[in-house]
Amino acid sequence: MGPRPEGSTPARGLRPGTPVLSDDDRRELGKRIGLLAEAFADAGHRFFLVGGLVRDALLGQGLTGDIDITTDARPDQIAGLVTGWAETVWDQGKRFGTIGARRGDTTVEITTHRAESYDSGSRKPHVRYSDDVAIDLSRRDFTVNAMAVELPGWALLDPFGGLTDLTNGVLRTPSAPESLFADDPLRMLRAARFSAQLSLTATPELVAAVRSSRPRLSIVSRERIEAELTKLLELPQPCAGIDFLHDTGLLGDLLPPWQNAETPVPAAGLDAALDAASGLDELVTLRWAILLGPVCDETAAARCLSALRCRSATTRGAAAILRAVRALDAAVADTGTSGDIGPDAWRKLARRLIADHEPALDAAHAVLAAWGRAVREPLASLLADVRADEGDGLRRLPVDGHRVMELLGRSGPAVGEALSWLRSQQIEYGPLSAERARDLLVAWAAAKSDTPPEEGGPGAFEPAH
Ligand code: ATP
Ligand code: MG
Q1: Are 424 and 397 in contact (CB under 8 A)?
Q2: Cα dihedral sign for 49, 53, 56, 60?
Q3: Which of 145, 158, 172, 198 to mutate to test the pocket of ligand 1 (most atoms within 8 A of CB)?
Q4: Which residues are placed with Cβ below 5 angstroms of ligand 2, an ion?
Q5: d(CA 349, CA 258)
Q6: What's the pLDDT tens digit per position in 70-88?
């Protein structure tokens, strides 16, 4: 899909001013915000739906996300007008022109038309208001996000051909992309996200502007960058967005291990991972592992994610997955060089992997699959069998440190030693019952106290205090 052909007519025969949105969407919106729109009209103000809601409704996706409104009313006037309608009002965004309000389960954010300008060293706009909705729309990031529907009447305002771009699959900025990206470099990451979210192809001008504006991203906080990347990785199919980041060079700026890497980006594998995760957090963690694994080990991946201020559960989770991937690779490599190691040795290997790497093993399999690789047989089947038969038992010991102290009457490093010996017994023989663990421990301690301590070794048990 290329850029919009010259002189093409708006899609689906719609022209600015034509009523849009389905009957259902209009009925629903009328129910939710009809009275509010009337209050603005009665006071002589204009009232426009904008942003993702308009875009997604035009795509036939129904009413998604927040209800964003733009109006010529100034913030104080907005605050006055929502008071009769809303049950809750919040005005923390008032100095940027935004008043939030809720009635029942409907939340709206109403912002005075803006005509902001930016400092060169910051992405914080000096807020300037406008009476002209077209000026407001021209400051928005992409043509597909720069459409408005006016209430009452439901007329579409689409001064930049957003509907045509949406239909033709084109991502384009309503004004010169260099200056939009210079004002707010986060828009470059939004471009990556929307190209994936809406299956849009960025125009060559947009791509060129991202390539030349990349260094400006340094003025954006890590937190904002992380939030935008997370939104991308949460999409059902982020592939096109990751390709965009890679093609424009942003990927290496954001994730240094990708700088100058020759390795292909596993973008398609990120899409495939959707089915392997059971929740959104897990999906994002898995996708970070898929994305970073080809260019770095788990330590560098964790460093990279911490630098991005990712949640620590995500950082730790991705590192654990990559550690498990490495262990699976090493297991396959070892057994590959030592020929047929026999069924017992295979089983012990599977037990060790489970004991050391659960619960990250499923994700590690998904990472390998995303890279177009699979765990070799017979390890794959054995892992599945051993997990089904013994998995739960292998992940924990039937006794804890307190019980070891009680049983052996000892404390100190010897307790850790006893637990780790018990773990090795589980790998050797499979999960132990509490009784069996007790018998083994008592016998082990007895045998140990008969053995003189090694020179420089941990020595005999210290008495418990
Ligand atoms: P979604 O809610 O699905 O993420 P959205 O388009 O509604 O998509 P929001 O972040 O909610 O995105 O923003 C609402 C609208 O505000 C956008 O559609 C766009 O018109 C405008 N907007 C948001 N962020 C920016 C930005 N950084 N620069 C310019 N316009 C923006
Ligand atoms: Mg939105």
Answers
A1: no
A2: negative
A3: 145
A4: 52, 65-66
A5: 33
A6: 999 999 999 999 998 999 9
- As a whole number of angstroms, the longest Cα–Cα distance in the chain is 95
Distance 297 CA to ligand 1 centre (A): 35
Confidence of residue 464 (pLDDT cuts 50, 70, 90): very low
329 C-beta neighbours (distance < 10 Å), count: 14
Q: What pTM value is reported for the model?
A: 0.86
What CATH superfamily classification does 1-161 receive?
Beta Polymerase, domain 2 (3.30.460.10)
Instruction: Give me 303's structure tokens.
Output: 């460093």
Structural domain spans, the chain: 1-161, 396-465
Q: Given this model, what pLDDT does residue 458 score?
A: 42
Burial of 45 (0-12, 13-18, 19+ CB in 10 A): middle
Task: At 84, list the tokens.
Answer: 């009769």
User: What span, in angstroms and rounded, lies between the C-alpha atoms of 160 and 9?
Assistant: 12
CB atoms within 10 A of CB 343: 10
Percent of the chain with pLDDT over 70: 89
Residue 457's pLDDT band, with cuts at 50, 70 and 90, is very low
**Residue whose tokens read 């780790």:** 420
With 50 as the cut, is the pLDDT of residue 310 above it? yes
CA 17 to centroid of ligand 2, rounded, Å: 23
Measured CA to CA, the distance from residue 115 to residue 139 in angstroms comes to: 7
For residues 109-116, average pLDDT: 92
Residue 102, H or E segment: strand 98-103
Ligand nearest the Cα of residue 56 is 1
Residue nearest to atom 14 of ligand 1 (CA): 51
